[in-house]
Amino acid sequence: xxxxxxxxxxxxxxxxxxxxxxxxxxxxxxxxxxxxxxxxxxxxxxxxxxxxxxxxxxxxxxxxxxxxxxxxxxxxxxxxxxxxxxxxxxxxxxxxxxxxxxxxxxxxxxxxxxxxxxxxxxxxxxxxxxxxxxxxxxxxxxxxxxxxxxxxxxxxxxxxxxxxxxxxxxxxxxxxxxx
Length: 179
Ligand code: SF4
Ligand code: SF4
Known about the structure:
Blueprint: H1 18-22, H2 24-38, E1 62-64, H3 79-83, E2 89-95, E3 108-116, H4 125-129, E4 135-137, E5 153-154, H5 156-159, H6 172-176
Antiparallel strand pairs: 1-4, 2-3, 3-5
C-alpha cells in the first residue's frame, strides 16, 4: 500500500540474533540506566516532611471579595464565566432587595456562584475579566485534595471572604504581581 505522506517510514522486522533472543543486552542496558539514576540528584521530595517551594507567581484558591463596608462586590455579570476556558464557573443572578444594601454592593448579585475546582486550570482569566474586582486567585491557599468529586464544587460558603474585617483575605500582594 502507498504511504499517505512522504514522512511515513516503512519498518522492516529485523531478525534477532542469539543475544537479542535471550534479552540479555536489553536487561543489562536497563540495569545500567537504573544504576546511573541512583547517583543522580533526586527530583522527588519526601512530602509531607519536605515541601517543595512554590513559584513566585503561582495561583491558588479563588476568593470572592467584599468591599470596605462588607458588601459582596460580585454583580453576577457572568464575564468571569464567559472568560473561563474550562467552563468551570456557574452562577445564578438575583435582584437585591432594598433591605439587602449592606450585603450586596450592586443591584444584582450572585445568589449562587460555584467553581468546579476539578475543571479549573488556575489560569487567572476570571480575575482579569472581572470589572468589579470581585474575584481573585489567592497566593496563600491551595485547593486541598478530596476523596470524591462533589466536594470540589466550591460554592459561596467557601469562596466569599468572611464578613469580619479582621478576617478578610489580603490580596494586595497578589494585585501587585505582574506576569
Ligand atoms: S482560573 Fe481560569 S479555569 Fe479557573 S475558574 Fe478562573 S478562568 Fe476558569
Ligand atoms: S466575579 Fe466579577 S466577572 Fe464574575 S460575575 Fe462577579 S462581577 Fe462579574
